[in-house]
Amino acid sequence: MSTGLLRTSLYDKQRALGAKMVPFAGWEMPVQFEGILKEHEANRQGCSIFDCSHMGEFLIEGEGARAALDRIVTQKVLDMTPGTCRYGMALNDQGGTIDDLIVYCITPRKWMVVVNAANITKDREHFERHLGPDVTFTDISVGTAKLDVQGPLSREVLSALVPGIQGLSYYTFGEFDLLGEKVVISRTGYTGELGFEIYYPWDKAERVWDQLLLDARVRPTGLGVRDVLRIEVCYPLYGHELSEEISPFDAGLRMFVDQGKDFIGKQALLTRPVPLQTVCVLSDSRRAPRQGQRLYSPEGSEVGEITSGTFSPALGFGIGLGFVKKTFTSTDKVIIFGDEKFRQPARIVTRPFYKEGSLKN
Amino acid sequence: MDIVDHYLYTKEHEWINIEDNVGTVGITDYAQSALGDITFIEMPDAGKEVEQFEQLLSVESVKSASDIFAPMSGRIIETNDDVLEDPALINRRAYDKGWLVKIEISDADETSNLLTADEYRNYLESLDRNDGGEDSEE
């Protein structure tokens, strides 16, 4: 049966492990293996692996690569040194977000940019339009597999195969030998735990996957729990907390915008109004806020909307991210979420919901 | 997927077990498996009257919320406190300890609108043939 969906090179392996597959950004991806609660525990307590081969990778090379990237990305690129990476955004002319991404400085003339799977086509167009003639652009998304190794035990697990990763500090990376193959490994992730992302050749994916799973501490995990984990630490997801209409300022991501330099969309970003602010909503019950539900003041007037929500296994309560009108204030931090059928009291809390992560260990 | 032979079923994957004039209602093994780990139940109050196929309650799993419908009309006479304490009981014991409500049935003829175990089994097989499973929001 053809679904018209793309499959990563790990599809058969994942099906054999009992993965439930769903369509995501044009790909047929594992949403869960053993179940979200078990996978959550595997990640927060041990070591879990995510196949993220659907994500996009671009190589930007040449004399002008650094300066060109510095114009495209909200974060400063000019001062980046080889072996460091930085999280930032690419903006449209209105200051809205084309994508959020990570820039990797491999050498002063060779860079990698990692982007969201759903945005590869428009990102490619945006980059190609804004890179000068002295820069070569190569989309290496096809052929590049990506595996995230995440959790408090991830360093122990991965260093058994690649001793060199012991020395990686947060948001640095290196080129290492993994099972005889030259791969890029960065100390980055999307779960709030200590973790690594491995970029390696597509046809070697199965070997790396199998090798990691030989370690009994390692569990395969799916996109379902990945979303739960990132909401618990309040990381934005493009299409939810970021979009062409939502600027990094709207999304509360000012710290990833360097206002001391020029970049595409900066003028608009600095002058456009910011009518909304982000909120982290902690339900008073196990009932979780869900995307699209409304936010209300304690008095009952509509003040905003939920953009992502889930039950939080770490907290035992429902949690959600959303936007409220900047004018909304609640002295006792009470806020209500719901739809036409129900209203559930909740509280506005400071980010992140889950504060015990091993991220910086 | 497990199916209990003497229960009756809906196409929305609820089951009802009728003894005398009281129907015990729950969700099927297929439903609990599709939902994944169940985390919250919004229970109706005992005493409430419900119509056949009208929304009865809602069940949430980690990543989704789903409406559960009444297999038959009647008055809710009891709700299962155990599943409020431990919603995952529905995942573990969908057909017995994970029951949701008991309904005092007002019209026994409504069983003609329900599926027998064999009919439900065939229905699940037809779903399997049509696609690979439930889609997720994410």
Can you walk through the features of this model?
The complex is a heterodimer of chains A (361) and B (138). By secondary structure, chain A is of the alpha+beta class. Chain A has eight helices and 19 strands. Chain A has helices at residues 11-16, 36-45, 65-72, 120-130, 154-159, 205-213, 223-232, 266-271; strands at residues 20-24, 27-32, 47-51, 56-61, 84-91, 97-107, 110-115, 136-139, 144-150, 173-178, 181-186, 195-201, 218-220, 276-283, 294-296, 302-312, 317-325, 334-338, 343-349. Chain A has a six-stranded mixed sheet with strand order 10-11-12-9-3-13, with helices on both faces. In chain A, strands 14-17-16-15-18-19 form a six-stranded antiparallel beta barrel. In chain A, helix 2 packs across helix 7 (223-232). Chain A is globular, with a radius of gyration of 21 Å. The termini of chain A are far apart. The mean pLDDT of chain A is 96. In chain B, strands 1-2-3-9-8-5 form a six-stranded antiparallel sheet. Chain B is globular and about 35 Å long. Residues 132-138 of chain B have low confidence and may be disordered.
